[in-house]
From TrEMBL:
It comes from Mucilaginibacter gossypii. It is found in: Cell outer membrane. InterPro entries: SusD-like_N (IPR033985), SusD_RagB_dom (IPR012944), TPR-like_helical_dom_sf (IPR011990). Residues 66-221 form the SusD-like N-terminal domain. Its main location: membrane. This is Starch-binding associating with outer membrane. Belongs to the SusD family. Keywords: Cell outer membrane, Membrane, Signal. It comes from the Bacteria. Residues 304-516 form the RagB/SusD domain. It holds the Pfam family SusD-like_3. GO terms for cellular component: cell outer membrane. The keyword Lipoprotein does not apply.
Amino acid sequence: MKNIIKFIVVLELFVTSSCKKSFLDKEPLGVLSSATFSADTTTLGLAVNRLYGSIAWREFRIGQHQYSTKEMCGDDFIVGGNADFKVFQDYSYLTDNYMIERYWGRAFENIHYCNVVIDRTSTLKAPYSAQLFEAQAKYFRAYYNFDLTNVFGDAPLRDHDPVSTAEYNIPKSSHADIIKLVISDLKYAIDHLPTRSQWGTANLGRVTKGTAQGLLSKVYLYEQDYANAKLYAEAVINGGEYSLYSNYRSLFSPDQLYSSENMMPGGFIYNTSLPAGRQYGPYLQYQGLPSLGSNGDIFPSPNLVSSYEKGDPRMSATIFTKTDIIPGFNNNQPVAFPASTNYANKKVIWPYSYWNGGNFNFQSVNPMYLRYADIILIAAEANNELGNISDALKYLEMIRFRARGNKTFAASVAAGENDGAGILPQIITTDKTTLRLAIWHERRIELALEFNRWYDLVRYNKVAGPNGSSGTGYTENLLKTVYGRTNFNYAKFSHFPLPQTFVTSSNGVLKQNSAW
């Protein structure tokens, strides 16, 4: 199979139930019919491919899911005129918010697809194929469950395909129990997934041993288990499967879906044969600018823009401004901006030749769900928290070295960059608190607009006090005092409410989060 992400498979074997009712009081969304499904190698292979189709950006309204639960409560985006997104920035969303409800439905649908594969591999007579299918399905189940517990905290835990109606309606499991399954699934994936080179070029886009190690390092970082975060992040770094792509701007090009840095490709490849409603890339719909044909509802925040160090090349690679042009569009003249912003996300803006039929929304896109730079920064943070300052500085410099254009700070000075002062001075502090804040700043800049910021802010509140030193309250102080978002309350808004429709229809089985 050439480039597995191209396999956007919607199996006719999937019998989809109405999305208007709760999965808790009927068969879950997207149930495979046991009457038509057989656990042979070909059919299971197609079911595994369906998991990759789910992670790609073609899924209906997945853009809403990502922005609402991973970015809009944070500080990297601002909202234009879209009231549906604005409620997340002022923390006025309610338990019946439709974007959160859609996220919930899609998350459990995708977990179901994983369980369908996992539950049937035991009957497959080809042991290697069974382990390979199960490893991929367990990786994706871990990914979705990790995401689910980050969004909601406690949530129903579905670790197999329901076999009786009594299992359709289940209570929440604790965050700890969900994380326990996530870790178990990822360790299985690590033991049974091939490396990138073992998969070979014909299978570029598949998750790998390194992908599973990288996600597990992130799980441990979020759990403040820094020893294991360091262990698995450094396993990726020392394993040699992945490397920093040489050019930060080109990294996000639709031409680089399978670059050396992309550990979990989520690319959407535009295809005219898709149904009309599926041709739009939801990743694009709310970004860009109205003058490009985008909805143009969300934009990089002025605070993010002002956070870049002087001369940092990543700013011009990430932030599209009023003086920028799009080659081939608008006679190569600057494009119109709405009054609400001076900036757009340049990571999704490419030359006009990339726009199929001249439509900004009809593009292949290259979002990454996990990339190597993230893992290096996890290694830096974990080492700093463990007191291994020299290693933390080493990993931080790897990121800044690439950001400078693969040169040292001394070479930047010698080249006369930033008026001869050089760009991105090498961080040399040995103070744990100062270095912690430097690493967090680097995460914000390096991973800007990539759906990491809100989860980072949530966990930072448990790691440090308002000034970054030991304690708690960092994020609450940042949002309320620095940004003036007085509605924010960490105990309530660090997790989203369970959709009220599902709580009500569970007849008392599913309990709303206590803060709501």
